[in-house]
Amino acid sequence: VQQNIHILSDRGAHFIGPGSGVLACKTVGEGRMIEPQEVVDAALSLLNKQSDLAGKKILITSGANHEPIDPVRFIGNRSSGKMGRAIAQEAVLRGAEVTVITGPADVPPPASSNVIEIQTAQEMYDAVMQHLPEADIIIGAAAVSDYRVENPTGHKQKRNGSGLHLDLTENPDIIAAVGAQKRSDQLVIGFAAETNDLIANAQAKLKKKNLDMIVANTVGTPDSGFGSETTDARFIFSNGTIDEHPLMKKTQLAERLMTQIVELLNARAN
Ligand code: PMT
User: Fold this and answer.
1) pLDDT number for residue 270
2) What pLDDT, on the 0 to 100 scale, is given for residue 17?
3) Residues 6+ apart with CB under 8 A from 145
4) Core-most of 15, 19, 152, 188, by most CB within 10 Å?
């Protein structure tokens, strides 16, 4: 097998896997077929349909946060990671080097990206700050938990007949911290998840967090926002321009977002 792998590699074949885990013979180790989704991701990435982001490093936050209450309970949110995953996949396809800092999610980021898994907003903040210096483009698609439990207990809390009262304290605003310290060669893009006053709220976040652009999407409806395959969106810029994007698949929106990012980079270069 090893000789055949060498021959095929010399002829330019690419290998995906093997994965590791429990094997058919009941031992644990390398030798499993990797997940079909990872095969698809790797194949798509090899096809590399456009390379207009080649040489760019993109840092993406994705998914939810779990803020512990005690060792068995947490405060979370409904982010599935689908939007972050779609953005990461599209960026990889266009030749970028992609790092995804992901909280708990229903779908994993593409295998062809550098994946960093975290649970809490503070862990996400720390990971973002660590990778920020080398990033050209930062995209905040995660549903970051704005609050954490001030004093999570080390033991499972018992019912005591008088309810449970939690003191919550604010988490850092990750994308605002990135916006506050961004270099002139870095592009910072946030999302705004809104149930009402979409444009006004998104514009306020764009300004307050010092972003180059914000993607405003409606949440709380079955077709758009958390968990859905589709979303609506508006790309809002600091000069007041608003581009409307009707309800579409998150993968299609990710394509439009990457095209927009390339335009912003080209405009800066000229
Ligand atoms: O994961 P899916 O199920 O596919 O859902 C996708 C999504 C709805 C989560 C995504 O499209 C989206 O809107 N992500 C941002 C969710 C959010 O937290 O929005 P916000 O309006 O509360 O925050 C504005 C921006 O600040 C976001 O870029 C957010 O990542 C960032 N933020 C917010 C709070 C915080 N403490 N730190 C942050 O960095």
Assistant:
1) 86
2) 82
3) 64, 65, 66, 67, 75, 76, 77, 120, 121, 171
4) 188
Catalytic residue among 24, 25, 47, 72: 25
> Residue 177 CA: which ligand 1 atom is closest?
39
What residues form DSSP beta bridges with 213? Answer: 189, 237
* Statement: the pTM of the whole predicted model exceeds 0.70: yes
118: enclosing H helix or E strand: none
CA–CA distance, 64 with 76 (Å, rounded to integer): 7
Q: Is 85 exposed, middle or buried (0-12, 13-18, 19+ CB in 10 A)?
A: buried
Q: Candidates 100, 132, 144, 209: which one to mutate for ligand 1, based on the most atoms within 8 Å of Cβ?
A: 144
Measure 77 CA to ligand 1 centroid, in angstroms. Answer: 11
pLDDT at res. 10: 66
234 neighbors 215 (Cβ within 8 angstroms):
yes
Token duo for residue 265:
């980079």
82 C-alpha to ligand 1 centroid (Å): 12
Instruction: Taking each helix axis as running N to C, give the angle between helix 121-131 and helix 174-181, from 0 to 180 degrees, rounded to the nearest 10.
Output: 20
The CA 10 to ligand 1 mean position distance, Å, reads 45
DSSP state of 256: H
- Report the atom number in ligand 1 closest to the C-alpha of 215: 13
Residue 170 Rama label (left phi>0; alpha psi -120 to 50; beta):
beta
Profile the chain (270 residues) by mean pLDDT over runs of 10 residues: 80 79 90 87 73 95 98 97 95 93 95 94 98 98 98 94 95 98 97 95 98 95 93 94 95 94 93
Predicted pLDDT at 43: 82
pLDDT of residue 143: 98
Q: What are phi and psi of 6, to 5 degrees?
A: -60, -45
